[in-house]
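#lab-general

N.A. 3:47 PM
ok so I finally got the sequence cleaned up, no stray characters, all 451 residues accounted for. can someone with queue access submit it? mine expired

B.Y. 3:52 PM
send it over

N.A. 3:53 PM
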Amino acid sequence: MITLRSLLAPAGAALAVALAAAPAHAEVSAETAFTFNTFSFLIHGAMVFFMAVGFAMLEAGLVRGKNVASICLKNTALYATASIAFYLVGYNLMYVDVSGWIGSFALLYNPSGAETALLGADEATPEMVSEVVGNGYSVMSDWFFQVVFVATAASVVSGTVAERMKVWPFIAFVFVLGAVIYPIQGSWTWGGGWLTEMGFSDFAGSTIVHSVGGWAALAGAIMVGARKGKYGADGRVNPLPGSNLSLATLGMFILWFGWFGFNGGSQLALGSALDATAMSIVYANTFLAACAGIVTAMAMTQILYKKIDLTMVLNGALAGLVAITANPTLENLFLAMVVGAIGAILAVLAVPMLDKLKIDDVVGAISVHLVAGIWGTLAVGIFGGGDIVAQVIGIVAVGAFTLAVSFVLWGILKATVGLRVSDEEEMDGMDKHELGLEAYPEFGTSSQAGR
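B.Y. 4:20 PM
back already:
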C-alpha cells in the first residue's frame, strides 16, 4: 500500500544526507536574513498590537458597568494618539542621532532613501538591493515594532485613572507621553544613550515601558484623586466591583499571548540559528514567569484573605510577565519562575499598601507595571549578571524624570481644562455623560430600560 509517508521517505533521507554534508557553520544569505528579521519585527509587532485588545478587555471587566464604554473609547483613542505622536516626533527623539540624553527633534519618520529608491526603480540593481539589505531589516518594520511599545506604556495609565477622569485631558497627556516623555527616557537606553554606556540593561522594557507607564499612572492617580465612595472617613476601603470578571480574564490571556511578541520580538533578529535559539528561550521564560505568577498569587490570597481572589490572580500573571520582561534570556528557566513569583508577591502586597495611602488604582496597574517592573529591572543585576548599581541608577533616573514631567503635565491640565468629571457625572457614569450611550443598556437603570 502506497502511503504519503512512503512517498516522502526518500526525500527525507536525501535531505538528511544534504544537511550532514553541509558546512558546520553554514549561514543564510544577507537578503534571507533581512527577510527573516523584517518578518520578525512585523509579526511580533502585530502580536504586541493585539495586546491593545487585552488591555481594553481587562479594564472593561474591572470597571463598573456604567463606565465600560468610556474605558473602551480611551483604550481605542490612546493607541491612535500615542502612535501618531511617536510618528510625528517620538521615534526621532528616541533613536535618531542620540547624543547621550536625547535624539533628533526632526519631524516625521519615513522609509530610508535606499528603500524608496529600490521601490521606485524600474529595474533594481544589485547595488540598490545590497544597500537596503545591508541595514539588516526594513526601516519601517522596526518603526512598527517600536510604536506598539509606546502605545502599551500609555495603556497602563488608562486603567489606573478610570471612572473619574475626563476623556480629552487624558488624550492630551497620552499625546505628550508618546511624543516626548517615553522617547526621551527611551533614548537613554534603547537609543544608545548614557544609561546604555553606564551598563544599564532592560531587554524588553520592564522599566522603559512598564515602569514608565506606572510612574505616569501614579502621578495621574494622585492628581485626579480617588473615586467617590472608595475610601470611608474612618479609613475603610470600600470595594467597587468590576462589571465582568470573565471579560477581565479574557483580557489577561490576550495580554499573555501578546507578551510573546513583546519579549520574543525584542531579540530584534531572526536571521540566524543563534537568534532563533535565543528567541525560543525568551518565549519559554516568558511563559513560565506568568505561570509562576498565577500560582503564587493564588497562594498569597488564600493565605492573606482565606479565599482566592481572581482579580489578584490575573494581576499575578501580569506581574510575572512584567518582571521577566527586563531579562527573559535567562538560560536557567527556574530562575524565570523565581523572578515571576516574586513579581506576583510584590504586586499582591502593593495593592493594599496603595489603598492605605488612598491612591485609587482601579485595575491595579501601578502594582503590576510599576512595582513588578522595578523588581524585574533589579533582578537583572541579581540573576542575570548585570551591574546592580547601573540598574538602580537607571530605575531612579527614569522614575524621577517620568514622575516629575507627569506631575507637571497633569498639573497644567488640571489647572486649565480640569481632570475630573463632575460628581453627578461620576455618579451616573461616564458613559452616559461623555459618550451619550451605555455599554449594557438592557441592564441599565435609565428611563430607557425595559422599553
